[in-house]
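Assess this one:

_____
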Amino acid sequence: MKVIKMLNPNIEYRSDPKFTTGTIGDFFRIRLNKKNLALANLLARMQMNATASFPSISQQQEVLSKFYDMSFEVVPQIMGPEIIMSYVANFVEPVEVLDPEYTYKNIYKTFEKMAHHPLINEEILELSKKQLEDEYREVMEGPSSYALDKFFKIWYQDRPDYEDTFMGDINLIKDLTLKEVLTFSRSIRIAPDAKLGVMKSANSIEMLVRKNNNLDFAGIIRAFDMDEIVNIPAGPQEGIYEEENHGNLQAQVYLGYGYREGRDEKFIHVKDIETEYQKRLVGLILSEYLAGDQSSKLFTSIREELGAAYQVNANSYHRNSLFLINTGIDPDQIDEVIKIIKDEVEKVKKGDIDIDLLKKSKKSLINFRLIAQDRENWQLANLLRQEMFSGYGRIDDDYMDVIKDINPKMLADFANDLFLKESYVLK
């Protein structure tokens, strides 16, 4: 597999001849706060609806269809205290199509028009607001979505810039003006920017980018990578309990464990990326061990003790110093399921770990990686991580060995760094 790296450190494309489709992306780093997240989501929706070169939904969709159903997505990704504004296109490789007009040059030009030239007018603004409002209302009707949103608002009650989960504050979005969106769009042009991609011929795209790169996007020459990772601490509060009753047939139970490390700091600055990488993987293993599938500790414990096989999830939000466990349960069994969750976490802290299940959990992550790394979108995301953090690529090459070396003591040490900060129940 060949990697093409231009003189500009923020541009990297990878050749992989086995794919029949390619993917290109443009990524901008922006500071996370409530207003920026609202603006990012609104601008993203506006650009997915229409752009300056294709000024209506039908025109933009017609162009994408003409390019053999090329997809174009704009997604603001939350990564710790930052937003990564991601513009990504997936396309059929030109060699797969007998069409002289379907070339890397035309694919790239079309992507650039959509990614770099938004259409910002009142009509698209109001349409996009309405779409987001309708989508938000629909999602929030689901008890699990409402509960997750409420959980994070409680978790970050002292730092509201980080409380929004998937879209941003819908009330802020509704109040945004055309001028604010235009100003935000212009600010992206100077934000740190990385152009990345995976396709059959990285050389072809490299030459196009070198020739056509918009020099007015000043962020392309700004440092995109960092020599440290900045995480959001869990904060000093603990033992928070909140319950709401909406009359649902199934209760949503969320237990949020925070990391003790740096909990009183404003941010956690991590220089040792290798140790941080290992700690993140230990968190993923613990998630799999506790709630990976029907053989996981929490699933089997709940089934055995409560006579029911409810779905249980565990997620390690490492950049947020949060280990979150949640389940749906009969409202009459809330106290019992909370006790089971706490007891299983305590067992891990004491080193009472099922070795066979730990091995199975490690194997599950390795198998997932083996499957995922042959997908273009995973490779693109991995390129992004390498571009963001100095040394990540070298460390990530040892992924399998790091997973294999994780032992019961490392799992126990990780669990002992956790404290129960928040319990939220929605009936």
Observations:
- The mean pLDDT is 93.
